[in-house]
Amino acid sequence: MEASFKSTLTDKRQRYAQFLEQFAPLIEDEKNEISVLANTSAALKEAFGFFWVGFYLVHEGELHLGPFQGSVACYRIKKGRGVCGTAWAEARTQLVPDVDKFPGHIACSSLSRSEIVVPMIAAGEVRGVLDIDSDQLATFDETDREYLEKVVDLLVKTLYQPA
The domain that contains 107 carries what CATH number? Predict the structure, then answer.
């Protein structure tokens, strides 16, 4: 299966809508968590050119680095630490226009300037987070939040809900 997620659309909402249309069949009926998250990272990176996109998964009381696209990253993050740990602790999306102003930000890359982190919640429990970084300030907005939460909802339904 080969799919291209590159788009010529310039409107962000239209690009996300197009992405979701292409993304749903890519992960449909696949239950291998690592495989699905790896392809999700690659698809988001290709579609939007994000600086860093990937997943941290809850494992033994910490977030552990999962599939990603971009430069090397932190291996583990404690609950409540940094943007990812805060998204996990609060079980809600974190939208950070300037990571240097976020209390306790963990600088895995000094080039990261803004960030959005969306928790993956199944049966009331955070299973992991989608983490996307930009090398520009204030890259992410409410449109990103809305559509990335839809991406995560689709992931959760595919991976963590019984067929």
Answer: 3.30.450.40
- Output the six-digit token pair for 67: 């599939």
Dist CA 117 CA 86 (whole Å): 9
Residue 86 has pLDDT above 60, yes or no: yes
Q: Answer yes or no: is 2 within a domain.
A: no
* Angle formed at CA 136 by CA 49 and CA 99, multiple of 5 degrees: 115
**Mean pLDDT score of the chain, rounded to an integer?**
94
Q: Which residues contact 111 (CB under 8 A, 6 or more apart)?
A: 51, 71, 135
CA distance 52 to 108: 11
The number of distinct structural domains making up the chain is 1
Please tell me the distance from the alpha carbon of residue 85 to that of residue 56, in angstroms, as a whole number.
10
Q: Say what the pTM is.
A: 0.95
Q: Which domain holds residue 134?
A: 12-160
Confidence at residue 154, expressed as pLDDT on a 0 to 100 scale: 97
Query: Quick check: is 5 in a domain?
Result: no
